[in-house]
Every structure is written in C-alpha cells, then in structure tokens.
TrEMBL record:
This is Hydrolase. The keyword Zinc does not apply. GO terms for molecular function: hydrolase activity; metal ion binding. Residues 33-185 form the HD Cas3-type domain. PROSITE patterns: HD_CAS3 (PS51643). The lineage of its organism: Archaea, Methanobacteriati, Methanobacteriota, Thermococci, Thermococcales. Keywords: Antiviral defense, Hydrolase, Metal-binding. It holds the Pfam family HD. GO terms for biological process: defense response to virus. It comes from Thermococcus guaymasensis DSM 11113. The keyword Ion transport does not apply.
Amino acid sequence: MTPCAFFVDGECIESMEAHIRKGLGLIEELYLKRNYGVLLGRAVGVEPETAGNLLRKAYILHDIGKCLEKFQERRAKFGFHWFYSYLVARQVLSKFGDAGEIASVAILLHHHDWVLTRIPPKPENPRLHEECVSLIESMIEEKIPRSIQWVEPSLAYSEAEKTFRKNVRGVYTFLLPIVVADNYAAACNRGGKGSTLGKEILETLKVRGWDLAGCLPGGL
C-alpha cells in the first residue's frame, strides 16, 4: 500500500511522499535559501541551522495524523488529522524544547482550526499505518511512535494556547511556510483538486516569476 495524502472516491490522487517532497521543495527554495532560518531562529531562540532543520521536520510531520490505520484503510477523508498530527509531533519534536512545542502548535493550526465546532474524537484504533510511519521516519530521521498517545482535546488546546500566547510570532513564523507549502503541494499534485488558497499561491508565485519545483505552467 502506498501511503496516501488525498483520496477521491477511494482512489489515491496524491501520495504522502509526493505531498511532502513537493512542499519541502518550496520551503527550501522560497524560504530557507533566502535566509528564513535566521528570522525563524530569532523568533524561537535557536541557531538558524537548527531552526531550518526544525521547519523541515515540522513540515514532514504536518500530516502524520493521516497515517492512522483507519484513515489509510477506509480511503476517504482525514477528519481532524491536524489534531492527531499535533499529538504525534509534540512527542517527536520534544527534544527541541520550547522551539519544538512552538512548531507543533503551528502544525495544529495549519488548517486554521482554532475555534472548534466539534471535538476531535479519540480514535478507536490509535495505531499509525506501518508503511506510512516508515516513510516519514526515512524522511525526517527521527523515531516516530507507532500509535497516537491520546490527550483530551480540552487539555491539548489549553496547552497549545499557552504556547501560542507566549510566542505568537514564533508560531506564525513556522505557520506561514507550512501553510504555503501545504497548499502549494496540494495545488500541484491533485489535478485541479487543490484549495482556493493553493490556487492563489500559484498565481502569486507566477506574478513574482518563481517557477518552483516545475509546477507552474509556462516555464517562467
């Protein structure tokens, strides 16, 4: 089974690997090669190289909640995957201290879901699909847990809010490239199935003359 990031009618339209690699390409070219690590490092109190590596790792982890066995096996939508991704990411990135927690909160917010109309349910099966986890481990070079360590949403969001209030700038400095890369990858890989934001990102890049990762038409 190929770990999938986007299904349509049970068919995998975008693989997890393709989604991650396409987004990483944008992060490298549009942000890190333009010294974004310096800005990010200042915002979260780490060296630029560490900040850049942490941004890469956060992007690789931003959709790991989609690796739940239930999601991969039912081949449909990935409800609340950002919350499940946050629970995994905060474990994996804990060795980075406060900077890792800030990056994890950015993952939680990468679909702008701070205000909840429904509470994320506890997965009946918390296990992550082995092939999906193995793929992400090979890309991130970190050990990934094989199941989600559950935290009640009320507590998790309360802790995230404390981190957010403590360093709003740091959260948004991670959040911006993650959101741009996520929507860019979706717009490139899903055959027109991307979000409105993704289409807007492509138009903006086209105006700026950036033909990143060979995605834009016309060979700018």
